[in-house]
């Protein structure tokens, strides 16, 4: 089957399309700092949204995979005037709706809605920054959880591999 054309509404975020891999660092007041590997895939089917899947795994000091960490999936929905809506679901029982803006190859997002199942850990807000820097996708994530205000949690640098 032939690859569909990229919908014109995706132009502001089309630079995200493809598969990205790399590594990053994480930490939070309630956990020890850690290194992680990550794979993100942004896809499309010709409609005006990107599909999104992210997988992370714990890395040891030599960069070897130790165990799976977080995964999330969802949809990135560009809106008029370079605005952006992102819907993400997590297997831990959390669903997030982010709103934000695209400025050239920089995306800033903050949660508009966070919903949790009764068994999910307490999480109340998130802020994400994505940017294309010298061809690499850099991102940072701040979260408010477990009684803490928005605090740096994870960041990574990913290279496009497909």
From TrEMBL:
<comment type="pathway">
    <text>Nitrogen metabolism.</text>
</comment>
<keyword id="KW-0349">Heme</keyword>
<dbReference type="InterPro" id="IPR022939">
    <property type="entry name" value="Nb(III)_bact/plant"/>
</dbReference>
<keyword id="KW-0408">Iron</keyword>
<keyword id="KW-0479">Metal-binding</keyword>
<dbReference type="InterPro" id="IPR014878">
    <property type="entry name" value="THAP4-like_heme-bd"/>
</dbReference>
<dbReference type="GO" id="GO:0046872">
    <property type="term" value="F:metal ion binding"/>
</dbReference>
<feature type="domain" description="THAP4-like heme-binding">
    <location>
        <begin position="9"/>
        <end position="160"/>
    </location>
</feature>
<dbReference type="Pfam" id="PF08768">
    <property type="entry name" value="THAP4_heme-bd"/>
</dbReference>
<dbReference type="GO" id="GO:0062213">
    <property type="term" value="F:peroxynitrite isomerase activity"/>
</dbReference>
<feature type="binding site">
    <location>
        <position position="121"/>
    </location>
    <ligand>
        <name>heme b</name>
    </ligand>
</feature>
<comment type="similarity">
    <text>Belongs to the nitrobindin family.</text>
</comment>
<dbReference type="GO" id="GO:0020037">
    <property type="term" value="F:heme binding"/>
</dbReference>
<feature type="binding site" description="axial binding residue">
    <location>
        <position position="153"/>
    </location>
    <ligand>
        <name>heme b</name>
    </ligand>
</feature>
<dbReference type="InterPro" id="IPR045165">
    <property type="entry name" value="Nitrobindin"/>
</dbReference>
<feature type="binding site">
    <location>
        <position position="30"/>
    </location>
    <ligand>
        <name>heme b</name>
    </ligand>
</feature>
<feature type="short sequence motif" description="GXWXGXG">
    <location>
        <begin position="18"/>
        <end position="24"/>
    </location>
</feature>
<protein>
    <recommendedName>
        <fullName>Peroxynitrite isomerase</fullName>
        <ecNumber>5.99.-.-</ecNumber>
    </recommendedName>
</protein>
<dbReference type="InterPro" id="IPR012674">
    <property type="entry name" value="Calycin"/>
</dbReference>
<keyword id="KW-0413">Isomerase</keyword>
<comment type="function">
    <text>Heme-binding protein able to scavenge peroxynitrite and to protect free L-tyrosine against peroxynitrite-mediated nitration, by acting as a peroxynitrite isomerase that converts peroxynitrite to nitrate. Therefore, this protein likely plays a role in peroxynitrite sensing and in the detoxification of reactive nitrogen and oxygen species (RNS and ROS, respectively). Is able to bind nitric oxide (NO) in vitro, but may act as a sensor of peroxynitrite levels in vivo.</text>
</comment>
